[in-house]
Description:
The complex is a heterodimer.
Chain A: H1 2-10, H2 14-36, H3 42-55, H4 68-80, H5 82-88, H6 90-94, H7 106-126, H8 131-142, H9 147-154, H10 158-178, H11 199-206
Chain B: H1 9-16, H2 29-43, H3 51-83, H4 103-114, E1 127-139, E2 155-157, E3 161-168, E4 175-179, E5 182-186, H5 193-196, H6 202-212, H7 220-233, H8 239-249, E6 256-262, E7 268-275, E8 280-286, E9 293-300, E10 312-324
Antiparallel strand pairs in B: 1-2, 1-3, 1-10, 3-4, 4-5, 6-7, 7-8, 8-9, 9-10
Amino acid sequence: MNLSQRARIRAGDAATFGQLFEDHAHEVYRHVVRSTGNWSAAEDIVSLTFLEAWRLREKLRPEGDSVLPWLLGIAVNVLRNTRRAARRHAAALIRLPPAEAMPDFADEIVNRMHDSEQLTAAAEALDSLRPAEREVFTLCVWSGLDYAQAAEALGVPIGTVRSRLSRARSKLRELTAQVPRHQEPGSAYGQVLGGRTDAARSNQERNR
Amino acid sequence: MNHSPELDSAERAELARLLPPPGDPELPAGRHLLLKDAFLQQISEPRVTAPRRRLALVAAPAAAVVLFAAIVAVTVHARRAQSGDEFTTSPIVAVAAGDARGASPLLERMALVVGKKPQVPVGQDEYVYIKSKVAWLVFADDDDSRPQAAGVDPQVLDEVHSREIWVPESQGDEGLIRERGETFGLSGAFPNSRYADLPTDPAVLLRQIYADTRGQGTSADGAAFDFIGEALRESLLPPQVAAALYRAAAKIPGVVLVTDSVDAAGRHGIAVARTDEFGERREWIFDATTFDYLGERSYLVRDTATGKAGTLTATTAVLERGVVPRKGDRPQ
């Protein structure tokens, strides 16, 4: 089934790309927002990622499992050079529906501000890593790819992924040792990944 | 653990704890749907244009230009025969279909671009200087030498002429207008700060505009649109205010994108437009690549008591904007 999905992607079947967007847009979006700490640009980067996937569809390997690593790899490339991707798809971008100027509900604003603070803190910490380490960290730790998938996404050997992640770990450990009280105890560090729930906001948005 | 062939969940969790949690950003369902639609529309468009079709696309505008020129020539001739050279004509322009779905994305792009521009500071006792070319409807003639339909004010488009204005930054200061070699004082006019001090939050701004224009014009939406048109016309705005005005305009019902328009200086651009209840469309024209404000154009989109469809009712072009310390001065 996965094989045939890949075949249909390579053949440029629009319905398959619709399903691809349906299945993976939220993961791409989450990866982009977390990597950049920026809400406002993320929607454009998601659009650019799928437009690039369409353009590069014939380069997808015919065999393999989930295509998510491939998509995230494209997202990483778009993030590396957003400007070039934006130029390539300028005509498409200008016709995109604009990002909403303001959330409608007050509690939504509060939620967003809370998210923004967290994102900013995480993005600042990420900045201490080199770009290559940062990419491996966000893909493996936050987006849940394994070594092989991250290697596929980034187009590097598995050993490279492993060593970059190892370097990222050492650097971050060093940093957290240096500034142990960077945050209030228990407020951020040590919290389980994805432990915060925002079901209220999500439902509200789904119901629109 | 460092050497495990797979990244297990315990190791992943341990790595995650090294950073603040990245939150759980979610693409709202409505946005997901919109972006998906836009993406699918983009990839399902025909990518190859047959030579025959391409030829037709070129030929159609060319034909329109020829037709346009012919109509202008005829009306100019007719008008001249009646009233001499004092007034030019009310030219007929081609009425393009407005794109209702295109206006909002364009305005958002414009807001993003203008928001990154540097702010030009304007001192409290300084003046904003704008030089433009303008033509608006004027009464054709005061004398009764020609038969006129009762109750109908015969209006024609003035000839395009130069206009300079010095708008005071602060309330209470008098400004200056120079048009056709004559200079007038501008007292009681709105100061530049009326627009420059507008809120930068689009939702707040739009509410304020509707509140401030309540009862004006013949529709609330039309009055709000015209307010923004005025704010953009002869002013010098902080980029954040301009961006908010674009985003507010995107939310006004009836606002459309017109893909090609032309200002009083002959410069082509894209336009944001709205048609009022009387069939008059007002366009704000912007450079298609830089999104710089070029000017305005107004015309009838259908036959009305004022004139035939396409009758031009206003055309302007802003040629220069600047700040000067005294009215009457020109920027260096």
